Amino acid sequence: MPSSAREATHAGSWYSASETQLRQQLSTNLSKVTPIPELNYHHPVVDAKAIIAPHAGYSYSGPTAAWAYASIPVDKIKRVFLLGPSHHAYIPGVALSGFKSYETPVGDITLDLKTIDELKATGIFSTMKSSVDEDEHSLEMHLPYIRHMFRDKPDLTLVPILVGHPTADTLDELSKVLAKYWEDDETFFIISSDFCHWGTRFSCTPYYPNAPPPPYPVPPVPHETPPASFSPPDLIRKFTPSQSNRDTPIWKSIQYMDHEGMDLLRHPAEEGAVRRWEAYLWKTKNTICGRNPITALLYLIQHIYLDKPDSQKPEFTFVRYEQSSKCLDGGDSSVSYVSGVLRVPK
């Protein structure tokens, strides 16, 4: 039998344990979300089916996450699938929670035990140990936002899935299993991921010494006129001061590399989307911690939409991009945060 409730183990450290303070912070973040006419972004996004949002401490990533959460068409949603990466335990495939509910300072969220039992019956999933579940922040950091957004829907249910290191065969099987839930108009998907973790403490210091402005800048990155002729710049896998270009600070290189990844995700139903995404990860070694949940989403979209006409294929709109700090030398570090909204044409 499932245990009762997962404790909000990161409350009081990664975000406030006070209901009043936490609601105020969430409301303030959401109040700062504004329309982006050039992206046809007006929240809530009625044709949104999934979001990518970050999972760091709220003082860092909370404002960015608000742009994804404001997009959710709350009124029609009754169930949320939340896919996050495993940071602390090696999981060869995908795992489900053994709890009945998840606690947050702004109210508990009931897990959809019927759906979880259906998923377990497929034989694809393992069950997380309680300690693994409660140690993992990639799922927990989304819970207050989910509960706050659906505060008028106490009957909302959640299906949390921890994505470890599934094989391509497992991802194919997972896509077949999740397809029927995806096709339910009252089900929404949330993908938990930060983007580049740059710095020696992350063992990640790639550098583009001649990074141009991103071709499709994500707000608030300003639009700059790209070079007359463009080709992908050379990538240095490990930054050294002798190879730095004063016209390309490290943060600008990171910005370009993250935009490369976002650009590859914009059309996830196109043939070859998974291959191009995986090739990008191999080339850059970009430490996108939610790369495996994102890849699982790509497999699912390919399974459902690959052979459908272009007019029916979903697209990602990326509406916010931030860095925790701007790296200027090799001793600096930063984490990037992205909010993206997947729209499915009606």
TrEMBL record:
CDD domains: MEMO_like. Pfam families: Memo (PF01875). It comes from the Eukaryota. NCBIfam families: AmmeMemoSam_B. PANTHER family: PROTEIN MEMO1 (PTHR11060). Belongs to the MEMO1 family. HAMAP family: MEMO1 (MF_00055). This is AmmeMemoRadiSam system protein B. It comes from Kwoniella bestiolae CBS 10118.
